[in-house]
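Input record, target 12 of the design panel.
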């Protein structure tokens, strides 16, 4: 994937503050005027959030679930904004939604995970926004394809949207437990590398699917230099019409925000920095050793490749591959290493070993 230069205009609200994270809070869905006002007032009073969110059109997996109030709910968001001064955000999934939001002075739009997966939908929404420079936040697609995520951001940018933000909300997986959507921090970090001007926030609510996990996920996101958080907040989570298990009250949100520790990139203490550099130089040395060992392994791989060729033996042998994964995983386990890491590592090493032999 090649880096993309986006034409980004910075949005003051997105700017990073040293003392507290940028926060978007509000219910999964706008359910009633009272629910929007009650939740929004409590959030505004605590002063933790910069933007109020509420879904108006809800993309539900099965028909028959609560699919949102639709257009009439936009007036409730306006009322809340007039009363509290908090800008409001909602999800749009087609050109009609865009039109309704623009008519009702919605301040921020977000693109849901089920929309980011489809370039047709994204293009339609982007075209509907041509000439209107409203801030747009793009959630990652349902599955971990960074190309689709970047593609959506590029489509908006090409249509003149210059205030963009990405939201990491986790990815669908057959093995999601304990999370509803598995976080892929490496992908979020990769996006940061490929689109360095783009702010990226984390939506721990949709990653977690469970209110109890939100606090830890939020701290991890900050420790990984994410630019803020989007947290689903409801005045009465138990009675929520969508995503009830993952919503928290404005009070719980306030406590959570107070407990978060803002990490720093650099420490003031000379002593600490010296200590850190010393430890990093040890890591540098280990990495160097690692590369030398890999080089020796690949030399041996090439030698085996020649022997296989001379004796007309198949390059890829599935039993050998399984044997490598099994034995390395068990050694890794004895050494206290993560099973997943050892598995991925040897899958990669084996793939490149086979490439070397194929060239021979
Ligand atoms: C939401 O934010 O309520 C939502 C539907 O999110 P996602 O698109 O991440 O599932
Ligand atoms: Mn939700």
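The sequence produced for target 12 reads:
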């Amino acid at each position: 994937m090649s880096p993309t230069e986006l034409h980004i205009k910075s949005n003051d609200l997105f700017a990073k503050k040293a003392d507290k994270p940028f926060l978007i809070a509000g219910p999964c869905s706008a359910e009633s005027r009272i629910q929007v006002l009650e939740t929004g007032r409590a959030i505004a009073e605590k002063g933790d959030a910069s933007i109020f969110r509420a879904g108006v059109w809800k993309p539900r997996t099965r028909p028959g679930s609560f699919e949102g109030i639709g257009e009439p709910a936009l007036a409730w968001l306006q009322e809340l904004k007039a009363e509290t001064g908090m800008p409001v955000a909602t999800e749009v999934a087609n050109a009609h939604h865009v039109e309704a939001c623009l008519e009702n002075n919605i301040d921020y739009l977000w693109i849901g995970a089920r929309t980011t997966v489809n370039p047709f939908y994204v293009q339609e929404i982007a075209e509907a926004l041509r000439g209107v420079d409203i801030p747009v936040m793009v959630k990652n697609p349902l599955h971990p394809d960074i190309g689709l995520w970047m593609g959506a951001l590029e489509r908006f940018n090409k249509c003149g949207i210059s205030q963009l933000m990405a939201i990491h909300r986790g990815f669908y997986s057959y093995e999601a437990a304990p999370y509803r959507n598995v976080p892929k921090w490496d992908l979020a970090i990769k996006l940061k590398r490929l689109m360095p001007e783009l702010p990226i926030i984390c939506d721990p609510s949709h990653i977690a699917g469970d209110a109890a996990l939100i606090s830890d996920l939020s701290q991890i996101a900050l420790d990984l230099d994410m630019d803020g958080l989007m947290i689903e907040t409801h005045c009465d989570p138990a009675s929520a019409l969508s995503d009830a298990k993952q919503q928290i009250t404005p009070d719980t949100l306030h406590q959570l925000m107070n407990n978060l520790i803002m990490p720093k990139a650099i420490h003031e203490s000379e002593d600490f920095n010296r200590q850190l550099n010393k430890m990093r130089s040890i890591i540098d040395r280990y990495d160097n050793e690692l590369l030398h060992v890999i080089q020796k392994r690949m030399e041996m791989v090439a030698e085996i490749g020649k022997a296989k060729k001379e004796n007309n033996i198949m390059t890829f042998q599935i039993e050998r591959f399984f044997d490598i994964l099994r034995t390395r995983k068990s050694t890794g386990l004895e050494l206290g290493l993560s099973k997943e890491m050892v598995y991925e590592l040897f899958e990669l090493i084996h793939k490149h070993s086979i490439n070397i032999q194929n060239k021979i």
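DSSP finds 13 helices and eight strands in the chain.
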